[in-house]
Design a protein that fits this description.
By secondary structure, this protein is an alpha/beta fold. It has one domain: Rossmann fold (3-Layer(aba) Sandwich). It is built from eight helices and six strands. Strands 3-4-5-6 form a four-stranded parallel beta sheet, with helices on both faces. The longest helix has 33 residues, at 73-105. It binds NADP nicotinamide-adenine-dinucleotide phosphate. Residues 3-6, 9-10, 27-30, 55-59, 86, 114, 116, 159, 161-162, 164-167 line the site of NADP nicotinamide-adenine-dinucleotide phosphate. NADP nicotinamide-adenine-dinucleotide phosphate binds at residues 3-6, 9-10, 27-30, 55-59, 86, 114, 116, 159, 161-162, 164-167.
C-alpha cells in the first residue's frame, strides 16, 4: 500500500487489513522516478506483485480549485502540472512498471484505475482533475488492448461523489443536500461500494471485463 503524506492514516488502514503480506511504501507520485521505486519496493517487500490499483490522486480541494475565469495563470499552470504529474504520469509509470514485471514473469494480472464521473460530466471548477481522469480512462483502454495477449486485464471505475474523509465537510455543509440529491437514491456513494467493485475487477473472475469503465455513481449521471 502506497501513501504520500498521511503515514498515520496509512498505518491505521494497515492495522485494519486482515491476514499477512502487507507493506506500506511512502512516495510522492508526482516526482520523477517515484513510481518505479514504489514498484521495486513492493516487489522487494512482497516477492511479487499481481495487481495494481491506481487510487492515489491529487483530488479536488479548496486549495487547488481552478475555475478558468477566476484563476491567475501562474496558479492555473501550477495546479495543472501537479495534477498531470500525479494523476496521469504517476499512474502511467506505475502501469509500466507493474505490466513489465508481470510480462517478465510470464503471468497474468490486473490493473484497476480509479477514474471519475467528472471525466464525462465535466469539472468546471477543477478542469485539470477532470482531464487527468479522462486520460486515465483512456490509458486503461489502450493498455487493456496492449496487455490482453499477456493475460493482464485493465479496467477503470468512474465514481460519482463518495463520502471519503476529504469530502466530509462538503457533505455536512450547505452543499450536502444538493450532493445527495444528485442521485435518485438520495445519497452519495460509500468508500466500501467503490472498494467492492475494485476488488471484483482486480480478481481473475473479472478478466473478461477488461477495457471497461464502470460507472459507480448511483444513476446520478448516465453516459450514452
Ligand atoms: N471521493 C470522491 O468523491 C471521489 C469521486 C470520484 C473519484 N474519486 C477518486 O478516488 C480516489 C480516492 O479519493 P479520495 O476521496 O479518497 O481522496 P483523498 O482522500 O484525497 O485520497 C487521495 C489519496 O491519494 C494519495 N496521494 C495524493 N497525492 C499523492 C501523491 N503526490 N503521491 C502519492 N500519493 C498521493 C493520498 O495519500 P496521503 O493520504 O498519504 O497523502 C491519498 O491516499 C482518487 O483517485 C479520486 O480522484 C473520488
Amino acid at each position: 500500500m502506497q501513501y504520500a503524506g498521511g503515514r498515520a492514516d496509512a498505518e491505521e488502514t494497515l492495522r485494519q487489513l486482515p491476514g499477512e503480506g502487507h507493506a506500506l511504501i511512502q512516495a510522492d507520485l508526482g516526482e520523477p522516478g517515484a513510481a518505479e521505486q514504489v514498484v521495486a519496493d513492493a516487489i522487494a517487500a512482497l516477492g511479487t506483485v499481481d495487481v495494481l490499483v491506481n487510487n492515489a490522486a491529487a483530488a479536488p480541494t479548496a486549495e487547488n480549485r481552478h475555475p478558468i475565469a477566476q484563476t491567475p495563470l501562474a496558479d492555473w499552470q501550477r495546479i495543472w502540472r501537479r495534477m498531470v504529474d500525479v494523476n496521469l504520469l504517476g499512474a502511467a509509470d506505475l502501469c509500466w512498471a507493474v505490466a513489465n514485471h508481470l510480462v517478465g514473469r510470464g503471468v497474468g494480472g490486473a490493473i484497476v484505475n480509479v477514474g471519475s464521473r467528472g471525466a464525462f460530466r465535466g469539472e468546471p471548477d477543477f478542469p485539470a482533475y477532470g482531464s487527468t481522469k479522462a486520460a486515465l480512462h483512456s490509458l486503461g483502454q489502450s493498455l487493456a488492448v496492449a496487455l490482453a495477449p499477456h493475460g493482464i486485464a485493465v479496467t477503470s471505475v468512474a465514481p460519482g461523489f463518495v463520502a471519503t474523509e476529504r469530502q466530509a465537510a462538503k457533505l455536512s455543509g450547505p452543499e450536502g443536500e444538493r450532493l445527495r440529491a444528485e442521485s435518485p437514491f438520495g445519497r452519495v456513494g460509500t468508500p466500501e461500494e467503490i472498494a467492492a467493485t475494485v476488488h471484483f475487477l482486480a480478481s481473475p473472475a473479472a478478466v473478461w471485463a477488461s477495457g471497461t469503465v464502470v460507472d459507480l455513481n448511483g444513476a446520478s449521471y448516465l453516459r450514452t
